[in-house]
Amino acid sequence: MRISRIVLAAALVLCFALPAAAQYVGILQSAETMDRGTFKLMVAPIMVFGKNGADDEFGGAIRGGYAFTDRFDVEAKLGFLRE
Known about the structure:
The chain is α+β, with helices and mostly antiparallel strands and 83 residues long. It is built from 1 helix and 3 strands. 17% of the residues lie in helices and 37% in strands.
């Protein structure tokens, strides 16, 4: 019952998610499934080198996740750059 509520809440949140027009944050990808009941949190710096005389950009990435079962986990990433 509890898992079905969590899945329903996640589905509702995804229905109202806004599309993001941002650069893909492709750092430190993970493919492993976490152990049940564990959390994952990561914070990493990002530096994008400017091309053709453009300025360098600095920012960061935040990533978190939670394992609901031994075979199902949810992870989210957020990346931001200073302009």
